[in-house]
User: What shape does this take?
Amino acid sequence: MEPVTAGLLSVVVLLGAILISRIPVGFAMAVIGLGGYAMVMGRGPAMSMLGGEVWSVFSSYGLTVIPFFILMGQICFHSGVNERLYKAVYAWFGHIQGGIAIATVLACAGFSAICGSNTATAATMSTVALPEMRKYGYNAILSTGTVAAGATLGVLIPPSVVLIVIGLQTGESIAKLFMGGLLPGMLLMCLFVFTIMFLCKRHPSWGPAGPTATWRERFASLPGSAEIVVLFLLVMGGLFFGLFTPTEAGAAGAALALLISAVSGHMSVRKFINSVSDTLRISSMIMVILLGAVIYGKFLAVTHLPFAVAEWIAGLALPPVVIILLICGIYTVGGMIMDALALLLVTIPIFFPVVEAMQYDPIWFSVLITVVTTMGAITPPVGVTAFVVASAAPEVPIDRVFRGVGYFIAAYVFCVALLLVFPGLATWLPSMM
Amino acid sequence: MKHSLLGFMDRTGARISHVLAIFAGLTLTAMMLLACWNMVGRAFGAPLKGTFELIGFMGAVVAAFSLAYAQQSRSHIFVAFFIARFSRRVRLALDAAVHLASAAFFLYAAVELEGLAAFIVDMGELSETLQIVYYPFVQAVALGCLAMGYVLVVAFCKTVFLAEEV
Amino acid sequence: SEIALKYANFPPAPTFPCVQMERWAQEVATRTGGVVQVTTYPGSTLLDAKNMLRGVMQGQADIGCISLAYHPGVFPLLSVMELPHGFTSAESASRTAWDLYAKHQPAELDKVKVLTMFTSAPSQFMAKKPIRTLADLKGTEIRGAGLISSVLERLGATPVSMPMPEVPEAVQKGIIQGLLTSFEVLKDMKFAEMCKYETVANLPVYPFAVIMNKKRWDSLPEDVKKVFDDLSAEQAQWTGQYMDTHVETALAWSKETYNVEVYTFDDAVQAEIARLTAPLIDEWIAAAAKAGIDAQAVLNDVAALKATYEQ
Ligand code: NA
Ligand code: NA
Assistant: This one.
């Protein structure tokens, strides 16, 4: 078999394995990548590749930022920050139609601002927001859809594991990528809010208004979530003004979160241990995905498939805009089936040079494909984030969750269109640095 | 008999995962403090030499030592869109295959990492910046992979012999 | 019949180790009349920097390019090329490196076939403030990796080690004041925009070796082996010259585009540098002697070769 054919075939096998069996995507890529590498290069080289790559990935200084940012988010979660944040937004918006759903989106955005992973955001916001919406008689389509869509903001609003990995892989500045993701993330947040308002207008029974909080209650709720604002400003400000490097920002953020929650009396040894053990679980999941993507990527590289695809695209002689749209199409479909992180890791080496050759801004392109891929994370048939939410709400079948998030896809498409028409949305903030 | 042996293997796996996770947690905390110390030190003109090398090595320990713990607590998300359409028998067969392939991957990795550590010793290679002996970190990663392989082998046995679904 | 070889390299395709790889592959194809076909894998697609040595020894790639600085302790003899000898060009340093290897055939590389050696251009200061004396370096945060950071320490600067991709931002934000490496990054990584003051200090070069899997080498027909061997010294010189031209282009571009100032340390400062960095040479001598190497003879060879090639 020609190596390129083996590469193409492996994509089919990979997707088949993910869809048919209960194999996590990282394991699937690792196993298929190793097997494929052994087929193309021989068993001996495959084995020495395995040892070398596991060590390289695990000991990578750049990747240590991932457990740090997750630890920051977990410390906040276990010290009750996002619960208080949710209560605060709820006090202000709970009384309007769909108000609790709106509060959920805003709280998701706030929590995203300290958490690097959308899976973690989905898991934590599900436990906080779903019971609340159930209590006030919200339709499950709206409530699960809101949480799943809101959780995807975690990837765009910095810090974001996906943007960190793009930065490490392409050499683009992680701080600039963070700044680039900020405005589109806020835009999506607003679009989600509009989507909820629109849905509640059409189906008033989906999101009945909650009780009205008094102004005193509203203002009293604010200090409870002030930590998140302080923390976000410190970490992003520190990055923006260069008090620390992006890789240090995670450690600084985690330490600051610990300090702030300890000072405000919301931290205990038990809570800290829980934060650390959850961090280990989540970051291990991400590391296995990264390891799998790196090994699978090594295999693809030796099949020369990425080069063949890149040459094919370059040889199409289409206008650059059409090529960008084509790439967006590929990422949309890819994002539906695969984990965003894994997909980006494997495909960026293919598309990044093509796009750079067309003189597009790399920060803009990174943000664009992140938005498109993230949309895939909630798109049927296989949205990872939707699955996380569905597993947190066992009584809601997955197709209802997908129906719910379906309404938010329009917001995504609009955001992508705006990014295509106004690249400044992603490039303006980074250019100010 | 089958049950008690597998039960014992399962408990052993849980205990190993737990102990490794404790080390991983301590290392993660130490890494955080080390990075902060370096930042503060640098602000006063005295950064620690080789911080980023040490953090990389410690990160390897964290990643490797939390593998088994994450697997034991079922942290890895799968998609399995079509799984509900299969009979229980087919589902069990698929799970067994997944566990076996994953176990093989991590056990091979453990062997290869041990080989890498031996190679580093053989060549007398030191770390780049601090020029310290660093092969024990490679061996630590090998140990983490070995524990992961063990937990997956137990999961395979439970699927095959006890017909337990994930 | 055709001989297919896999050649792995770790830095991105446009960098000089990869440029020389493509040139070598081309040359070999021409000189063997197309019998030898080399597939190149730049940018760590096949092997990354840390895995290169082992990967070639175990046959993951047939040929690979290793940076000696990535393997402290492994090359007791050839690591002499990492010391501050004051080479002024990549050409003289590359030719010295190859000749030194050819003469001593050190045991540290006897598990592989060495096809050629070359070095980067000398390391120079690029900073946000003028560096004209060693006093200007006092307490200044400069990025330098590996042995370069020890050199910086000896010169009184504060060495900061961080991965290269983080450096532009760290300079821009003032986390560090500059960096110590060869001048091509002025253009290739746009450092000229931030670091307006360049100082020629002729500090150490980074040596590289192109190695081949021993078994694979033994399997080659004699005429092919001869083509490879005949190319070794020539390839070292070609790479050095290419590097020097590239550095000159970058420097000219930086002067024209960003109006950078280029200052050269005078002889008094150079003498002071030699005095301050002498302990590094002593350290190398001690380590080499421990490995059973006639350290003084090697140092004499380096000095003699340098004198020949720097004329
Ligand atoms: Na985030
Ligand atoms: Na997806």
In short: Residues 2-162 of chain B form one domain.
